[in-house]
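Bench notes, afternoon.
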Amino acid sequence: MFLLLLLATFLIALGVSFVVVRLFTKPIDAILSRIITDSIRAAWQQYLTFAMYVVGISSGVRIWELEQYITPPLSDDSTVITLTMERWILEIYRTILSTLQGLAWLLLVFFVFALIAYVIVRIVSPWATPTSATCVISL
């Protein structure tokens, strides 16, 4: 029963991560294309997609909390918690929320750094025009 719960939480976290990645692919591409004009942009987007899957799955499948179903508590009179239908529903709900929470934090950090990078690019771009670079080289 535990292995089925582990597999179910993994598949749910993977599915939620897939939906979030699909929803944010175009906005992330637009942001990266605005900040990074080089061909390395595709690599950054691929890395961010990978990171979203890793964070989503690792946040959703909470191994340390699932251990309560196979490891008895330290007290002598306690038993292992049984997996009832109510526990299944609770674990599925926790998996969805934990996956979304992990992905929300990752995207928040990405968007904060992207905003900082955008401001830096906007400040530096007037000085980085091709005509001024040519003048500097000709001096």
